[in-house]
Amino acid sequence: MSIDIDTARRVAKLARIRVEEDALPALADEFNAVLGFIEQLSEVDVDGVEPMTSVTPQRLKRRKDGVTDGNMQEKILSNAPDAREGFFAVPKVVE
């Protein structure tokens, strides 16, 4: 796949970046270099390679998934400018 100047202009417009007319050929060349690198990556044989999220093996810590209220209602509401009946009180904004 090859990117011409018109396609580079269209991509710049879609990305909402201003590119001067004389810089469009260089932008098209950069796009072509990136696409060439991507084509090189597609030639790599990755059969039998497991996907990984890190270069070092990691195991996530597991904990029991339990729902709690935190038991900190008073502590949380202590910073509220106005709290009533255990809830944050806010001014009415819709008439």
From TrEMBL:
UniProt key word Lipid metabolism: no
The keyword Mitochondrion belongs to this UniProt entry's keyword annotation: no
EC numbers for this chain: 6.3.5.-
Superkingdom of the source species: Bacteria
Catalytic activity: L-aspartyl-tRNA(Asn) + L-glutamine + ATP + H2O = L-asparaginyl-tRNA(Asn) + L-glutamate + ADP + phosphate + 2 H(+); L-glutamyl-tRNA(Gln) + L-glutamine + ATP + H2O = L-glutaminyl-tRNA(Gln) + L-glutamate + ADP + phosphate + H(+)
Class of enzymatic activity (EC top level): ligase
GO molecular function: ATP binding; glutaminyl-tRNA synthase (glutamine-hydrolyzing) activity; transferase activity
Keywords recorded for this protein, A-Z: ATP-binding, Ligase, Nucleotide-binding, Protein biosynthesis, Transferase
One GO biological process term: regulation of translational fidelity
Pfam families: GatC
Subunit and interaction comment: Heterotrimer of A, B and C subunits.
Family to which the UniProt record says this protein belongs: Belongs to the GatC family.
Known role: Allows the formation of correctly charged Asn-tRNA(Asn) or Gln-tRNA(Gln) through the transamidation of misacylated Asp-tRNA(Asn) or Glu-tRNA(Gln) in organisms which lack either or both of asparaginyl-tRNA or glutaminyl-tRNA synthetases. The reaction takes place in the presence of glutamine and ATP through an activated phospho-Asp-tRNA(Asn) or phospho-Glu-tRNA(Gln).
Name of the protein in its database record: Aspartyl/glutamyl-tRNA(Asn/Gln) amidotransferase subunit C
Species of origin: Celeribacter halophilus
Encoding gene per record: gatC
